[in-house]
Amino acid sequence: MFQDFAYLIVLLPIISFVLTLFFGKKFPANGGILAILTIFTAFIISAGTLSEIYHGGVVEQSWHWFAFLDFGILIDPLAAAMLCMVSFVSFLIQVYSVGYMSHDPAKPRYFAETSLFTAAMLGVVLSDNILQFFMFWELVGLCSYLLIGFWYRKPSAAAAAKKAFLVTRVGDVLFLAGIIVLYLNISDFTVPDGAYLLQFQTMFAAIEHIPPSQLTLITLLFFGGAVGKSGQFPLHVWLPDAMEGPTTVSALIHAATMVTAGVYLVARTFPIFLASPDALIVVAYIGGFTALFAATMGLVMNDIKRVLAYSTVSQLGYMMLALGTGIVVGAEVVGMSLFHLISHAFFKALLFLCAGSVIHGLGLQDLRQMGGALGKMKITGITMLIAALALSGIPPTAGFFSKDAIIEGAYSYWTHTGDILPYAFGIIAALLTSIYIFRLWFMTFTGEPRTDYHAHESPPSMTVPLVILAILALGFGLAAHGAFGGFLEHTYSEHLIEEAAEIGGHHLAEEHPHPPPILFYLPIIVGVIGFVISWLIYSKRIFNMSSIISSRNPIYRLLLNRYYQHQIYTEFVAITIVHRVLSLIGEFIDRRIIDGIIDGISWILIMIGEVIRRIQTGVVQHYAAWVVMGVVALMLFLFHGGGIL
Amino acid sequence: MVPLNYYLLLSGVLFAIGIYGLISQRNGIRILMCLEILLNSANLNLVAFSSYHGNSTGQVFALFSIAIAAAEAAIGFAILIALFRVRDTIDLHNINILRW
Amino acid sequence: MSYLNYTHLAPELIVAIMGLAVVFFGLFIPTRFKRGLGCISGLALIIAILEILRNGVLWESQRVATYFYDAYTIDSLSQFFKLVFLSVSFIVVIASTRRYKESRYQDEYYGLLLFATLGMMVVASSNDLLTLFIGFELASMSTYALAGFDKTNPKSVEAAMKYYIIGSISSAILLFGFSLLYGATGTTNLEAISAYIAAHGLASTTGTAILVFLVAGFTFKMALVPFHMWAPDTYEGSPTLISALLAAGSKKMGFVAAFKVFIVALIALKLDMQNVFFILAIITMTYGNLVAISQKSIKRMLAYSSVAQAGYISMAFVIMTPLAVGAGILYVLSHAFMKTGAFIAVGAVVYMLTREKKNLPDADHLDNFAGLSKRAPLTAFAMMIFVFALAGIPPTAGFVSKFVLFSSAIHAGYITLVLVAILNSALSLYYYARLVKYMYVLPPAGETLREPRAYLLAMLVAVIVVIAIGVYPAPFLEWAMNAATTMGL
Amino acid sequence: MTLPLISLMILIPLVGAIISFLSRTRNQARIAAIIASIIPLIITIKMYLQVDPSTMWVVESYDWIPQLGITYKLGVDGISMPLILLANIVVPLTILFAWGETKRTSSFYGLLLLEQVGVIGVFSSLDFFLFYIFWEITLVPMYFLISIWGGPRKDYAAIKFFIYTHIASLVMLLAIFALYFIAWAQTGYPSFDIVHLLAQYPSFSPVVKDVIFFALLFGFIVKMPAVPFHTWLPDAHVEAPTAGSVVLAAILLKMGGYGLFRVMMPMLPNTTNTSLVITVVAIIGVVSIVYGAFLALAQKDLKKMVAYSSVSHMGFVTLGFASLVPLSVTGAMYQQFSHGLITCILFMSCGVIQHGAHTRIINDLGGLVQKMPKLTFLMLGGFLASLGLPGMSGFIAEFTVLTGSITTLFIYVMIAVFGGVAVTAAYHLWAIQRAMFGVFNEKLGHIHDLAGYEMLSMAILLLLVIFFGVNPDPVWDFMQAGANTLLAGVHII
Predict the structure, then answer these.
(1) Could you tell me how many CB contacts below 8 A there are between chain A and chain B?
(2) Which of A597, C93, C248, D384 could disulfide-pair with C339, CB 3.0 to 4.6 Å?
(3) Among A164-173, A460-469, C203-212, D58-67, which is the least confidently predicted range?
């Protein structure tokens, strides 16, 4: 019954977007109420649909669009789980926004754009073909642009918005190229009845007709898109800057919507990735490396939101890592990855909302100025602690279950391929994660205030979502970790996965050996170690950090400058190479050479005219002489030359 | 009987003299005279050819042409007089306000 | 007994009689009534035009009648050109009724104009070197006098002077050429010449000499480089209406004479002729356009443009196919109207300006055209039409003529020639567009002007024909093709 | 009796133009103009609803110059109909946008209508003579629009535009002649009928084929314009008044693309060395896309940037044309249509900014959103559409061109994707960030937001862009039928 209204999941937020944008001022809460209601309805439908397909079956609907393409809805377990998470988290964030944004004059625009953002994300999840997926994907990018640049008067916000759009656009270009190459390979494939070209099911059916090398190309291009959207190395640079928008937007981008789209893309097209010999290895490496790389930067950031941003990048790396281990573990990794995605959505949304609450309550963003806020902001402090525990994978939080599974997957990968690196990345990153998140918590909530501020707890519309999310971050893993994997296993048929693995030349391990006890408990151990280190340094202050935190320390400087990526990406690549050199060379060619030739020709012609008009001296004898010369010349020409035709 | 070539040579010489005069002289009157020489060289030709071919067409042509030359000279002098009135000179080298 | 039936000579007779009558009655009529002579002349011209249209020779592709011992023929070629000459004269006369309204010498003016027209008509019909030469000289001498008609204006006299001297040289050269041609063939009848050469051949030296002399003689009228030197000076210095007559009428007489002599009589020299005209055409159009760019006097600019246009038309002598000659003839017709119209428009401007300020030097300077669309909207509009027609922008006569002419060149395989012509045509846009810019874009250079009605009427006639040929060229093209076929190509 | 609908569509704006030229007051002129430009739109819609796009329908044919086989023959099919629709949408909206024009209004609106006349004529002519006449007629009003209402370097720009494109048309004319005469020699009777001549083309001798092909190609791609024959465009755009730019970019450039489809497409597979020709055309297309994008990035003037973006976007048309695949050919046609709508918004935005801020130099602007929120909204919509955002018509076009072409032009498509798409986003975003967002530049003084009629016009365009981006079917079906017919005779599919 709910599934018949599946299209409303996207449509309602879009309606909300249009109405709020143009008539926002006339609605209660400047349109907030509309946004909340529509997203809540979407959540209800999503949840209803999930319950309907829980015991099998998928929802498929499509309408002809143009050419060979349809608009379509596909809700399988993967999509259903994702839908519920997106709509639910978005709903909570919207509720929270009513309080958080209460002083902003541009509320209608805010609610309109967030509605569109949610709609776009839901559209990505619902899509049953890769093109529609891409369209909503781009729409997500657009909304992130609008929302990050929400406070467009701030030059830094406008710049960050542009950067976010452009960097993810680089990934999108790769994704688009992937779709195009995919089309190249399946354009003459006979489409099964009831399906159409570029539909996921057609793609999967066509896997065996595509040469593996092309599959690798396609999947790597797809993964390029995922790297851009999900902030993986090396296209992660936009994500920390995306903090320029309102904190709720950060929460929306980092927890529920945009960044998970990349992971969802890989999960959605997982059979193709599996069928390619090398793609998943790349995914694993990039994911693992990103997890570690981002965590190192998270250690030294002083802006509360920036720490969380790098944490997001790092956690997304984990999700990618999980998917990458699929060459050994098989389709189960989709469940693993998505499980982490959802638990991450809860605790990361919680972290951001807490950070928002802190910023709201303290009026500060710099960790070095905070301290001792726990007394004034109990709810925020405690919920944030829960989120931090979840992030660092301390049992029994959701983060523990999800991250543990991933590291275990990496272990399987290690044992089957002998390649330890992804595992090592995962473990070290887990340690660093624990350190930086507790550093953040301790610096914010313990000790003495380092500046004068008047803290106050946030209003209920903000704290209630915090509490709900905290409960989820705490209990979700415990409640769902068994059922979740089982449910998501229905996403891809076993036959499809086996066939794909065969094409890719992978041997899926039947048995996953349990690691020896020391390794089994290692994730928890490093989590605790991290906590202890942070506690000692930032709460007990037993070390003097000034020797490390100094501009003379090259490693610290490297990290604080974020590996000089701004210099490399913006100043060198964007400004120097693309703008200065390439486009100015083009300008030179255009103005001086191409136009120069044209203007030169006309100048020469005019000059010739100026010169030869002097033949007309005005003296009639000269004219007579010309006549005679003409006669003589014609005579000579005819006697000697002639026949030029 | 004088051979045709002699006539042609004479007319050619006359033609060349006329052309030379036209190019080298500055005085308008002389120019007009040179024009007459030019026309007459052609008339000479016509008459000579007429006698050579033994038909009268050339002579008729020459008569017409002489008449036309007379009219032409009249117009030429009329223009020269008008020129002299407005410019006070008939030195054609100086008559060049229209140029380029 | 066709030569007893003189009805086909009616147009010539009308013009001749009226010319004499105008001069004669001019002796007795007081100046203030002399304007009527202009009206009568115009009436005579229009009657002649109607007569030509009425008797239907234009639609014939065969010769219709011959007179005076084969010296004078009536066929569609001759009638077509007569139509051109009469129309040009008619348009000029309309405008002149205003321009010379108060002149004492109106009778002479109209007389000379009619005689000039008559001379041109005789050339168009002549089938003998003698009649051709007489017609040529009649037209030339009348126009010498007309060119110097403003005899107190140094420019006008100087223009007449130059025109006269170069014209006389060319006449002499032409006559010399005729004499050689007569010497070589023993006849002056064009068809007889052709038949003689076909039967006995022509020594190549003699042939070349004849060809060069005749080319020099005719291209002087056609104003092909380097025999064009007089044209810019004369067109600039002459009274503007006479410039119109020279550029549109007299010049076309050169073309019809050349068509007759070269195509009818000297077709045996076709190869040499094509070579010569190939070079002349290319040099002429390029030179004309390049020099026109830097002109500031509109009359002089139009003169150079006229030189360039002559270059296009003379492509017909290179291509020498019936289609090309037909196209050339069509171009002659179009150009006659475009150029007359343009000169009359300039004349109107000059007239309007000098009416206020006597002795205004350089009244036709480009700067005086600034903002003309505000000062004299109708004149400016007509001028724009003529200028775009000259540039070959559709839907005007200029476009159609170029279209047919260039296409005939492509047909005959003269790619180089057409390429040069086309680039020239694009180049010419530069100065035409500049004039349009002055008229329509720049701010007005003075007060609003009162536009003289006679000029407007003259321009209206020209505009109508230019547009008519542009929009519905079929009948005009048919006439031109008929005219071309009578030459027996 | 059936009405000669196409002739009416040409005639009514012509009459409107004359009325407008003669009208004494601004109001008279603009009301005449808007009425005369909307009636063709109504006719178009009526025709749209009763048609079969796969063949030529609504043909009007009369003898014109029988000696040369010239006829007055008009007709529309799936290739031309959407473009006629585009022209008839754009011109009324342009007139609406320019409702507040104050300088020499009667001529202004008249000239805009004349553009409509010429363009509809080009899109519906089935006779080369007629085609060429209309093709040339479009030059004149644009020349006036640039040189009367233009910016500081209008003389240079106008004359450059005029002569440059005129040379191209003349070269095209030469090729038409060659086609005509050789076909005449083959069939024994003269005809300028486009379809007839194109049917004769395959049996020409090889050298002639190539010469004709490249001459025609030159004529069309200068109009498009494609690199390296594009330099007249930035100058013309920068100097032209807003309405002139709009008409120039939105419909005049489309004539080049239309020529490619109508004339070149049937010839392309029959050239002597088709693969070479395709390579050349594809390279031109790709270079235009990439080079245009980079040049746009280098521009300091907002309008010039938009002009270069036109070069870049029209490259997709060339690329789609070269591939000879129905999907991409349809996509290329769609790109013509879509670019026509999108570019209007961009140029209108530039116009409003120029009008308000008296400068278009991006670095001198800044923070305009605070004074012009409505404009910023519409402009952002246009910019996003232009950078190929899904959901807008540009995306459909570019995507289908790229996917369609990939099967035959793999490497070129890849270059276009990687070199063009990202840069396109970059310059659009860079410009809008610098010009519209950030801190308001106080030096700009007091700035009004856009007027109601301007907003209406831009908003309609934006809605159309979104409508055709979400639901391309109405035009797509037409173009697809047209493309299939075109390619059916081609045997390369």
Answers:
(1) 34
(2) C248
(3) A460-469
Residues 6+ apart with CB under 8 A from A316: A230, A231, A232, A259, A260, A262, A263, A287, A290
If you ran DSSP here, which 8-state letter would residue A5 be given?
G
Q: Which helix (H) or strand (E) holds C361?
A: none
3-class DSSP assignment, residue D389: coil
Q: Flag if C165 and B85 touch (Cβ within 8 Å).
A: no
Q: What is residue C1's predicted lDDT score, i.e. its pLDDT?
A: 42
Q: Which domain holds residue C12?
A: 2-486
d(CA D30, CA D35): 8
Q: Give the span between the Cα atoms of A635 and A641, in whole angstroms.
A: 10
Look at residue B67 in the predicted model and tell me its pLDDT: 93
The residue of A638, A640, A645 whose CB has the most chain C CBs within 10 angstroms, and thus the best one to mutate to test that interface, is A638
Lowest mean pLDDT among A441-455, C115-129, C418-432, C467-481: A441-455
Residue with tokens 């006229």: C306
Point out the least confidently predicted range of A195-204, D302-311, D381-390. A195-204
Query: Looking at this protein, which amino acid is placed at residue A569?
Result: Y
CB atoms within 10 A of CB D165: 28
Distance from CA of A603 to the nearest CA of C (A): 11
Do residues C56 and C478 lie in contact, with contact meaning Cβ atoms separated by under 8 Å?
no
Q: Do B79 and C148 touch (CB under 8 A)?
A: yes
- pLDDT score, position D86: 92
Q: Is residue A167 pLDDT above 70, yes or no?
A: yes
In chain D, what residues touch A175 (CB-CB under 8 Å)? none
Residue D390 reports pLDDT greater than 90:
no
Which residues are within 8 A (CB) of C110 and not within 5 positions of it... i.e. 6 or more apart?
C19, C22, C26, C37, C38, C41, C93, C96
Give domain status of residue B46, yes or no: yes
Burial class (CB in 10 A: 0-12, 13-18, 19+), D1: exposed
Would B79 be classed as within a structural domain? yes
Answer yes or no: do A626 and C216 touch at CB < 8 A: no
Q: Do chains B and D touch (3 or more CB pairs under 8 A)?
A: no
- Interface check D327 vs A, CB under 8 A: yes
Total tally of structural domains belonging to chain B: 1
The string of pLDDT tens digits covering residues A306-357 is 888 888 888 888 888 888 888 777 777 888 888 888 888 888 888 888 888 8
Q: Kind and range of the H or E element at A484?
A: helix A460-488
| Tokens of residue C298, six digits | 């509109």
Q: Which chains touch D (3 or more CB pairs under 8 A)?
A: A, C
Contact residues, chain B, for A609 at CB < 8 Å: none
- Number of domains chain C is built from: 1
A616 at B interface, C-beta within 8 A: yes
Task: Give, in order, the Cα–Cα distances in Å from C442 to each of C376, D152, D238, D242, D354.
Answer: 14, 13, 20, 20, 22
ipTM of the complex: 0.88
Whether B99 is in a domain gets the answer no
Closest among A270, A251, A264 to A207, alpha carbons compared:
A270
Q: Where are the alpha helices (DSSP H) in D358-421?
A: 373-386, 393-406, 410-415
Of A477-491, B31-45, D183-197, D327-341, the range with the lowest mean pLDDT is A477-491
Percent of chain A topping pLDDT 90: 0
What pLDDT was estimated at residue D492? 43
Q: Give me the CATH number covering residue B45.
A: 1.10.287.3510
